[in-house]
């Protein structure tokens, strides 16, 4: 959920006020099944597309169980990991002269998109329409950040939006959370061991887990994050996975999905089979556009499709 070169232009961007606007969001947005733009299709695996129904999926629409990604050209896509299919939804027209930096999706199917100018917007995953929020950038030193929702426990459908600085002036601040009622950011704590002070992208689950895709070099790392302290556990090196200069991250169907692009290239999609042998492989190469943000709600399946 990040575009590295976007930070270079921050100082020249127009600072925009983020006032409230009339909401255009749907609690149960329809699934966009058409292919458009730079999308590419293919099959990663078979089985039921809904991934089964678990306790975390209470009250969830089918659309809320998908992964959503945003490109550096402001294009919003849905992604079905079990079929490897991207579907273009539309173009974001947020009131910003900047570009998307990262994205998270809540249980109602609303995408929360952090832009490189530090502002936070609400985007409909039904039609890509965009509303400003009253979030004030640079709270506690967080300008751009990785972000994800996780439920507040294994048996809960309540969720929290967590954020973490990615690199440069934003890294080293550890884990924080944003209250979406007050729009206030609160710091939680730094990561553990050699991940202390590192930047990361985030993904969360419907049973209360939070994970970080850490931008370490030469290989990125994965670790689970304690949502109450920021401490990291189960750290592992992702051999052969480099974040490049545009990257994002999601959990779906028991596995991790990494979206990475080297300079001048479009995105590769890499699957880590955490539900099986933990093997890592590129399942879609050079998809035709550059993903800079990915979001998956806590409605997403926790186990592979059957």
Descriptive overview:
The protein has one domain: Neuraminidase. Helix content is 0%, strand content 38%. The protein has no helices and 21 strands. It has strands at residues 2-3, 67-71, 75-80, 85-91, 100-105, 110-115, 120-124, 130-132, 145-151, 159-165, 175-179, 184-189, 200-204, 210-214, 221-225, 232-237, 246-252, 255-261, 268-272, 280-284, 291-296. The strands form 5 sheets. A 5-stranded antiparallel β-sheet has the order 1-17-18-19-20, with no helix packed on it. Strands 4-3-2-21 form a 4-stranded antiparallel β-sheet, with no helix packed on it. It has a 4-stranded antiparallel β-sheet with strand order 5-6-7-8, with no helix packed on it. It starts with a strand and ends in a 10-residue tail after the last strand.
Characteristics:
globular, mainly beta, single chain, 306 residues, 4-stranded antiparallel sheet, 0% helix, 5-stranded antiparallel sheet, disordered N terminus, Neuraminidase
Radius of gyration, in angstroms, nearest whole number = 17 Å
Outline, from the CA principal axes? globular
Biggest β-sheet: strands ordered side by side in the sheet: 1-17-18-19-20
Structurally, the number of domains stands at 1
Structural class: mainly beta
**In CATH, what is the class?**
Mainly Beta
Helix content: under 10%
Strand runs, count = 21
Output the number of helix runs.
0
Order of helices and strands: EEEEEEEEEEEEEEEEEEEEE
Mean pLDDT: 84
Topology-level CATH name: Neuraminidase
């Amino acid at each position: 959920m990040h575009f590295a070169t976007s930070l270079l232009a921050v100082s020249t961007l127009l600072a925009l006020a983020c006032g409230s606007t009339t909401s255009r969001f749907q609690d149960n947005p329809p699934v966009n099944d058409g292919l458009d733009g730079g999308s590419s299709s293919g099959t990663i695996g078979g089985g039921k597309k809904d991934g089964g129904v678990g306790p975390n999926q209470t009250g969830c629409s089918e659309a809320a169980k998908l992964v959503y990604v945003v490109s550096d050209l402001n294009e919003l896509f849905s992604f079905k990991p079990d079929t490897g299919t991207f579907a273009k939804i539309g173009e974001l027209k947020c009131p910003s002269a900047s570009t998307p930096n990262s994205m998270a999706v809540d249980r109602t199917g609303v995408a929360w998109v952090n832009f490189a100018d530090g502002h936070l917007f609400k985007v409909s995953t039904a039609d890509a329409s965009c509303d400003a929020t009253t979030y004030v950038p640079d709270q506690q030193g967080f300008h751009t950040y990785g972000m994800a929702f996780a439920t507040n426990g294994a048996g809960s459908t309540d969720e929290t939006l967590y954020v973490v600085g990615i690199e440069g002036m934003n890294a080293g601040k550890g884990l924080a959370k944003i209250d979406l009622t007050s729009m206030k950011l609160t710091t939680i704590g730094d990561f553990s061991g050699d991940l202390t002070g590192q930047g990361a992208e985030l993904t969360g689950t419907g049973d209360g887990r939070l994970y970080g895709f850490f931008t370490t070099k030469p290989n990125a790392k994965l670790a689970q994050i304690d949502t109450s302290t920021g401490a990291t556990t189960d750290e592992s090196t992702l051999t052969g996975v480099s974040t490049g200069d545009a990257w994002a991250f999601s959990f779906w169907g028991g596995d991790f999905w990494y979206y990475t692009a080297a300079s001048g290239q479009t995105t590769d999609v890499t699957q880590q089979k955490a539900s099986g042998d933990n093997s890592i492989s590129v399942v879609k190469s050079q998809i035709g556009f550059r993903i800079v943000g990915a979001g998956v709600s806590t409605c997403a399946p926790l186990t592979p499709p059957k």
